[in-house]
Write a structure and sequence with these properties.
Elements (H helix, E strand, L loop, with lengths): L3 E4 L2 H7 L1 H11 L8 E5 L4 E8 L9 E8 L2 E15 L2 E13 L6 H14 L10 E7 L1
Parallel strand pairs: 6-7
Antiparallel strand pairs: 1-2, 2-3, 3-4, 4-5, 5-6
C-alpha cells in the first residue's frame, strides 16, 4: 500500500467522476486549479489531488485546497501551508488543517493517517515536484 504521483488516465477520470467533481469545484473555487495529476494508492482505492492553490490577491497566499478520496467518500480539505526551508533539493512543509468542507462528518483517525501518507508523497507539487527529499509536519 503505497501512494504514487501519476497522471490521471481517462479511465480513472471516468471511474472517480473527476469531470463532475471539477464542475462542482469550479463553482466553489473560482478560479480553481485544473490538474491532470494526482497522488494515488490503488490498493487502498484512495487519492489526493489539488483543487485550488491559494492566491495572494485573495488573501489566501498560503492556503491550498485538496480533494481526498478515502473509504468511498470525497473530502475537500483546506490547509494552511508553511514552507519549512529549502536546501539543495530538500524541502519541508507544515500542513495545518483548517477545515474539512465536504462531507460534514469529517475523517476518522485512520483516514487522517492515510491523508498524511498521501501528503508526504505529494511533496510540494506531486508528479511535478523536483524535491530530492521532503519532510512534512502536520497540525491535525
Amino acid at each position: 500500500m503505497t501512494f504514487v504521483n501519476e497522471y490521471i488516465t481517462p479511465e480513472d477520470s471516468e471511474k472517480y467522476g473527476i469531470d463532475e467533481l471539477d464542475k462542482l469545484y469550479q463553482r466553489l473555487f473560482l478560479p480553481m486549479s485544473h490538474g491532470s495529476v494526482w497522488t494515488i494508492d490503488r490498493q487502498r482505492n484512495s487519492y489526493l489531488r489539488v483543487v485550488k492553490l491559494g492566491r495572494e490577491p485573495e488573501g489566501e497566499g498560503n492556503i491550498n485546497y485538496f480533494s481526498f478520496y478515502y473509504a468511498q467518500e470525497v473530502y475537500v480539505i483546506k490547509f494552511s501551508i508553511e514552507a519549512k526551508g529549502v536546501y539543495k533539493g530538500h524541502l519541508g512543509k507544515s500542513y495545518k488543517l483548517l477545515k474539512i468542507l465536504m462531507p460534514a462528518h469529517g475523517l476518522c483517525d485512520e483516514g487522517l493517517n492515510v491523508l498524511k501518507e498521501a501528503l508526504n508523497e505529494f511533496k510540494d507539487l506531486g508528479l511535478l515536484s523536483r524535491c530530492t527529499s521532503f519532510k512534512a509536519e502536520f497540525e491535525f
